[in-house]
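Example record for the data management plan.
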Amino acid sequence: MELLLKTPSMAQAVVSTLAEIPFPSVDADLPVALLTRCPAASVTPLEDVPALAKAAQVAKVHVKDERNRMGLGSFKALGAAYVIARDAEAGASAGRTYVTASAGNHGLSVAAGALAFGARAVVYLADTVPEGFADRLRSFGAEVVRHGSIYEEAMAGAAAAAEEHGWALLSDSSWPGYVDRPHTLMEGYLVLMQEAVAQMPEAPTHIFLQAGVGGLATACAAYARVAWADAPRIIVVEPEVAPALYASIKAGSAQVTQGPESAMGRLDCKEPSLIALKGLARDADAFVLITEEEGKTGSETCAKAGYPTTPSGGAGVAGLLAARDALGLTEDARVLVILSEQAA
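Corresponding structural encoding:
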């Protein structure tokens, strides 16, 4: 485990380099109003889990359980499908081709959204993504294209295809010149945090948020600051082999990182979303890197508590267990974590 405590100077350095990049949205009402029209939409549970509190030696661990969100198995159901729903509302989705790259559940959201609104989905997958996931995408009518050995190479292929064919690129990351769609996509993730705020009996003292490119973490952190101001400490958790946000905050600007493949596959992103980086530079307090073994411990601890998930889905719990002492959590701490996806 490695810990970085963000300082004001670190935050200012990052924000100053991203002047043309917007901060994340905090308007949860629009995605709530649109997504609740979906027949599969429903509020996911927030559970008080004493077994996790005991494992972490804290007073409370509340789990926002996204494993069954809209029948797609993860929080990602709130993102790309929301963007396509917005396009449909404007009469711009029917017959359109949406192309993306995915390391996991984002592709399912694109595929499901396209299927629901009369569009076509093309999803680029790196060679490391299991064929079982490709089959699941195909079950939603998506065309699957294998491209590259890592997520970033698959995304480059998707972007090139969008340019060549005039397709709509729908990434869950953002970079210079590409911010509008990911900004809208992250707005969809606000739904789960608005629900969590309403479900929590009182403000948490700590929130542990797992991050790949950072979309989930930044949406949740931004809304938490609106709801609870500075009351909770917000900690971002990444695999040590994919420290995109950690390295960028430490360096004072966006960094492209390198490392081997992580078992935390949905978090195995080597470059941050710039919207997420800007938002987390403002809203997060600390950044934690966890080892592969610590990620495994997190998912195993969740399973023992009756909440099976992947190492990616349980990475917030893994960060809590690994960094508890370093962050100075006491037995009075009240922790909020997100169980972001179902077990494989």
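Summary line stored alongside the record: The longest helix spans residues 180-199.
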